[in-house]
From TrEMBL:
GO CC term, one of those recorded: membrane
UniProt keywords, alphabetically: Hydrolase
Protein name stated in the entry: Alpha/beta fold hydrolase
InterPro entries with a match to the protein in the record: AB_hydrolase_1, AB_hydrolase_fold, AB_hydrolase_sf, Epox_hydrolase-like
Gene Ontology MF term list: hydrolase activity
Alphabetical list of Pfam families matching this protein: Abhydrolase_1 (PF00561)
The AB hydrolase-1 domain, residue ranges: 34-274
Length: 298
């Protein structure tokens, strides 16, 4: 049963669940056609992709999960909430659905999770779409380090469990550039993290942004397996969290890379520019399909 705070007009999708050892993981699987798999970041969930899915599901099969601890997925006490564990859950979903030739869409913390799969199974990933993200160690990144330590430190846990401050503050900060976003939409992000005591657990993801440098480095060392995959990068230049230097690193990394700049947008392009994103993604997939079609033989 869906929670009473969820607006079915905003999120008009059939809920599906994959039972994992750690609990039930929620996902949606909408439409038919070439497969687009979307991986959210923190503190978001599949809700962030709702407008893209509404637009794309008439021509594509759109799959988006909620990581354990987020959205409509279970929030177990004994789950590690580390990126490696989320990546394993994502791979379990991909194996369950037996998806091939996908376009992988990743954003924020979703890139390490989604690209971990791509690095191990590049034959299943036809193309990649990236939105304001990274996949390398953040141990020396001051912005992430300060935010991460605050969210999981004693003060952050107290505020979170007693006053419900830190999640609201984080969501509102990240959505700050989307000035026209209704409060009801903001609440979908805040309430999807569960009760205050559950939110403290899922915010372990924030700590792990800088706490698993070894795993990030392991991913980065395997990067050559995806360097030749055609990639579209959609980048909000007013992002307060993921800076423009990350974009420059991605541009140097991929051998075939197309970049679209959104000068007036921030971290959550899906909320600010859904129509444009859907068009860019659709056109990108169509162009890649044309390039891969066998030449007509006379």
């Amino acid at each position: 049963m869906k929670p009473d705070w969820l607006d079915p007009q905003e999120y008009p999708f059939e809920s599906k669940y994959l039972t994992l050892p750690c609990g039930k993981m929620h996902y949606i699987d909408e439409g038919e056609g070439p497969v687009i798999v979307m991986v959210h970041g923190t503190p978001a969930w599949s809700f962030i992709y709702r407008n893209l899915i509404k637009l794309l599901r008439t021509r594509y099969r759109c799959v988006a999960m909620d990581m354990i601890g987020f959205g409509l997925s279970d929030k177990p006490d004994d789950f590690s909430y580390k990126p490696r564990a989320h990546a394993a859950n994502f791979e379990a979903l991909m194996n369950h659905l037996q998806l091939k030739n996908i376009t992988l869409v990743v954003h924020d913390f979703g890139a390490p999770v989604g690209l971990a799969y791509a690095l191990d199974h590049p034959e299943n990933v036809r193309s990649i779409v990236m939105l304001n993200t990274w996949t390398w160690s953040l141990s020396k990144h001051n912005t992430f380090s300060k935010a991460s330590k605050y969210l999981v430190g004693p003060l952050g846990k107290f505020l979170h469990s007693k006053l419900n401050v830190s999640t609201d503050a984080l969501v509102n900060e990240l959505l700050g550039d989307a000035s026209n976003l209704p409060e009801s939409i903001r609440q979908h992000y805040i309430k999807a993290l569960g009760q205050p005591e559950q939110k403290v657990k899922s915010l372990a993801c924030a700590r792990e942004l800088v706490g698993v440098s070894k795993w990030y480095e392991e991913l980065w060392q395997k990067r050559k397996s995806i360097q030749d995959i055609p990639t579209l990068i959609l980048w909000g230049e007013r992002d307060k969290l993921v800076k423009i230097e990350a974009l420059q690193k991605w541009k140097r990394f991929f051998h075939e890379c197309y970049v679209i700049h959104f000068e007036e947008s921030g971290h959550f392009l899906q909320e600010e520019n859904a129509d444009e994103l859907a068009n860019y993604v659709s056109n990108f997939i169509k162009e890649e399909q044309k390039r891969n079609e066998p030449a007509y033989q006379l």
